[in-house]
Design a protein that fits this description.
Strand 2 and strand 3 form a beta hairpin. The chain has one domain: Alpha/Beta hydrolase fold, catalytic domain (Rossmann fold). Helix content is 33%, strand content 20%. It is globular, with a radius of gyration of 18 Å. Helix 4 packs across helix 5. The protein is α/β, with parallel strands linked by helices.
Length: 255
């Protein structure tokens, strides 16, 4: 009986567990530092996603496709932008359907389609060797999925999850999970098939995966040395840490 109740609970509430978006009206004005453009991209079914585009004030070396995590919306994740634009990297942040000003409903397939739609738009404007795919949190599943299909310059996974099932077990250990979930978000399935150089930025404060799962993900990298540990103090954003800025400095030098 408890198993049946657990299955019913997960089926009904999986979207609330996996996705915690902030939604905005189309008239909302974003108050963000730096200049940016805002535009829509349309899917074949006419559903649209909202995209924020930040240009570096110095000659751009590449463009970062920033695939944000499950919480908030693109305007909140724009806090990362200066770390990139100061190093000559443009940044494009799409909001998945159901997030920000992107209407519709979030789902795993929609996340993958929204990421691919944005990547496809980018590659009509630049060579793929100038695109860096960056995923954060749950967005690492989208980034690692895209990395199996698109030859980007680099792929960066910040605090990746191992898979949604593992994440739920870690955060909600009392829940009884069915054999199959509605969503997978299995980074571990995509990572070995990446066709681009891939890095993992792993913070000591991350709760997206366990230390054991992080080691397993590291072993799936083509080069295990591409696991970059990030020493992050409490109440300090990851992009403000010494290890993170050092990594971006080194990245910018090879572009």
């Amino acid at each position: 009986m408890l198993y049946i109740v657990g299955i019913f609970f997960i089926y009904i509430f999986i979207n609330f567990i996996a996705f915690t978006p902030v939604r905005h009206t189309s008239s909302t004005k974003y108050n963000l530092s730096g200049s940016f453009k805002e535009f829509k991209l349309k899917h074949p079914n006419e559903e649209q996603i909202n995209v924020l585009y930040f240009k570096s004030s110095i000659p751009a070396k590449a463009t970062v496709l920033f695939l944000h995590g499950a919480r908030q919306s693109a305007d909140a994740w724009a806090a990362y932008v200066p770390a990139f634009t100061e190093r000559g990297l443009n940044v494009v942040i799409p909001d998945y359907r159901g997030y920000g000003k992107s209407y519709g409903n979030p789902s795993e397939i929609n996340w993958y389609e929204d990421g691919q739609l944005t990547y496809s738009w980018l590659k009509t404007r630049m060579h793929e060797d100038s695109i860096i795919i960056y995923g954060a949190g749950l967005g690492t599943a989208v980034a690692s999925y895209l990395a199996t299909l698109n030859p980007a310059r680099f792929v960066i996974l910040e605090n990746p999850i191992y898979g949604l099932r593992n994440w739920i077990r870690s955060h909600y250990p009392a829940l009884l999970l069915p054999y199959e979930l509605k969503y997978d978000f299995n980074v571990y399935e995509y990572l070995p098939n990446s066709i681009s150089p891939t890095y993992i930025l792993q913070s000591n404060r991350s709760r997206e995966c366990t230390p054991e799962e992080a080691i397993q993900l590291q072993q799936l990298l083509t080069d295990p040395n591409n696991m970059i540990p990030i020493d992050q103090e409490q109440n300090v954003d990851i992009f403000e840490t010494t290890d993170y800025t050092k990594f971006l400095d080194q990245l910018a030098k090879v572009l």
